[in-house]
Amino acid sequence: MIKVRKSLLFAAIPAALLGGFAFSDPGERYFEIAKNLEIFGTLFREVNNFYVDEVNPNHVMKVGIDAMLKSLDPYTDYIPEDEIEDYRTMTTGQYGGIGAVVGSRMGKTYVIMPHDNSPAVRAGLKVGDEITKIDDIDLKNKTYLDVNKLLRGQAGTPVKLTIKRYGQDKSIEVPLTRENIKIDNVPYHGMVTNDIGYIHLEDFTSGAVREVKNALIELKGKGAKKIVLDLRDNPGGLLSEAVNISNLFVSKDVEIVSTKGKVTDWNKVYTALNPPVDTDIPVAVLTSSRSASAAEIVSGVIQDYDRGVLIGQRTYGKGLVQVTRPLSYNSQLKVTTAKYYIPSGRCIQAIDYSHRNEDGSVGKIPDSLRVAFKTKSGRVVYDGGGISPDVEVEKSLIPQILFSLDNKNLLFDYANKYTNEHASIKSPKEFKLTDAEYQEFVKWLGSKDYDYTTQVERSVEDLIAYAKKEKYYEDIQEQIKALKNKMYHNKESDLQKFKTEVKEALEEEIVARYYFEKGMVEASFDNDKELKAAVEVLNDPARYSKLLNKK
Fold first, then answer.
1. DSSP assignment of 230-285
2. Which PROSITE patterns does its entry note (predicted)?
3. Beta-strand runs (E) in 383-505
4. Out of 169-173, 198-202, 259-263, 473-477, least confident range
5. pLDDT, tens digit, 9 for 90 and up, residues 320-338
6. 27 φ, ψ to 5°?
7. End-to-end Cα, the chain, rounded Å
8. What is the Cα–Cα distance from 158 to 312, expressed in whole angstroms?
């Protein structure tokens, strides 16, 4: 239950409103704040007294606070007392539980991925197990948050799961004891060739630098002469971890990042405080459009010091820093306080939330307004709009049939079926479905209900709508019919046309049942365009040096 009283609300509102007025006279600013607080208090009192139904003050206040903060940016957020533990998990990567990712599919709760060396693994839970009860509480109609709260608890406390496993008629009761779980920032590291090491950095929670450092040292010990650091889809996290991870690859005392905001006393320059692990080993950093925040700091440092080559897609463009401030009743405010600037002097923030359109929407900074900066070796780079890679690799489009198969749980279900019929499979790097096995999957799909609309079909329907609106349809309807016959999808033919994509996704889903997350990563190597591009660049010293403008 959210515990919000008038005093809490009135204490919280000024902090958020301070950024909403542009008055030169401080007295005028505080008059406007006091006036609006009085209006808000009067409004709430009138609603509470006269609204036709009973008003829940906690809910109404939470909605009001959320709407107010949302008008600033997506990252400034109110964290009520009952959500503090989830927030701590996000920043520390630690929680009390069974050590398994669970998720809802088609209204049912499934084990999606057990963590290595967790109570879930030791108890024999498998990917694909359906959880029907937790401590005899039926999970029917329970949300993901409901299930999460039931699974988590103090380390050392017992919890009992009732599960259904594919191919077994009877439910299974699984007793477990909760433990302190630490989610790995580096779920996988290994050798992709005889001399190229690979580190998959998924988050920047507490301890990330230790995991990356240990992985880097271990890979060098195994013969790695070059490193691929995978930051794709990494949403970021703790600024301190980004600074220290950057420090692994650059010299001590160099500037990593600086922050500048309204409160000048909080402005800070972060430098590399520790001796590096290796300032010479060639590095390729993989980025995507969902690499953000701390991941962009590391990417930017590597690029600005010409320390390695960035490969993939332009990053997200989140150059804002948040801190948490304590509020009453054990709640907190996560508030944007500054922008960060990487060594070349650029800020990579893509959206200017201080300038909104009349409808309240915001747009990305256009490329024409991006300002040029230079890296250490003189390469031209730009601010705003994220960090552009040195080698761009177009992201593969996922066909609509694959979206549909995933949304309908059909890949997931067939992987359960396959696992039930095969006690073991080859290693993740070696496992491939034969053509005959793929055709068995296609045959199995014949009785399943799934459909989809392709982008081409949506475009044709838009064309028809515009043609009718502008009275051209009667003249071109025969051509439209012919176009529809040629371009509208057929599920059977699409399963062959997109066989490679569907087969790869199914193989990864199957591998997860036997080798968990590490196996899924290894299984993806053969189909990974960005990783292949990184290996090519690292294996071509002349091209690597040219990209970095090194003589």
1. E-TT---B-HHHHHHHHHTTS-TT-EEEEEEESSGGG-EEEE--S--S-SSS-EEE
2. PDZ (PS50106)
3. 391-392
4. 473-477
5. 999 999 999 999 999 999 9
6. -60, -40
7. 63
8. 45
Alpha-carbon distances, residue 466 vs 168, 453, 454, 456 (angstroms): 54, 19, 19, 15
Q: How many CB atoms are closer than 10 A to CB 245?
A: 27
User: In whole angstroms, how far apart are CA 309 and each of 144, 202, 239, 297?
Assistant: 40, 19, 22, 14
pLDDT higher than threshold 70 for residue 394:
yes
pTM of the model: 0.88
Output the CA torsion 531→534→538→542 (10° steps): 150
Q: Which of 11-20, 88-97, 129-138 has the highest mean pLDDT?
A: 129-138
Cβ atoms within 10 Å, residue 466: 11
Q: CA-to-CA distance for 123 and 429, rounded, in angstroms?
A: 27
Averaged over 103-110, what is the pLDDT?
89
Backbone angle region of 318, left / alpha / beta, with phi > 0 → left and psi within -120 to 50 → alpha = beta
Nearest to 15 by CA among 39, 40, 37: 37
Give pairs for 55-58: CB < 8 Å, separation 24+. 57/4, 58/1, 58/2, 58/3, 58/4
- The predicted structure's pLDDT at residue 287: 99
Radius of gyration of the CA atoms of the chain, in A: 27
Please state, in angstroms and rounded to a whole number, the distance separating the CA atoms of residues 86 and 191: 34
SS3 337: strand
| SS3 state of residue 547 | helix
Average pLDDT over residues 385-395: 96
Catalytic site residues?
293, 304, 318
